[in-house]
Amino acid sequence: MKTTRLLAVPALAGASLLALTGCIQLPPMGGAPVATQAPVVSGDPGSGDPGAGTGDLAGTSWTGDFNGQVTDIAFTLNEDGTIDFADWAGSEFDSPGDVWTLSGDTLDMTITQISVDESGSETFDVSLSGTATDGSMSLSGQGTDGNTYELNATQG
Asked: Superkingdom of this entry's organism (predicted)?
């Protein structure tokens, strides 16, 4: 009976440690929330239905402006739910925290680490939501700096 008890204690301790390890989540680098959900694909791309084929946004490229202040942006909505900015005011701007999801007709984007000044010492994140239909998108939302922002873009 002592042998059974001696084996049971380490086994219970190990199981408890494994259970607790699954509950611990380290914060993402840069302090920005990182979405891990891939884009939700809905609709039938070939049906001709308005709103159908909204999942076709995966892999698409866009150009436009951010808040009317950054007028030359170019980005791609990747199939894995991340966003790659090939151009942000004349330079490449890419962060692993830049993500997008699609639910029905609603497109949600999070753009992280937007620099307040040229030095990049102060940054903020923006969460935007809206629609992307007929090759254009119009999104609006709030930044972690408390201001409201808009992103307008066309596909191509």
From this structure: Bacteria
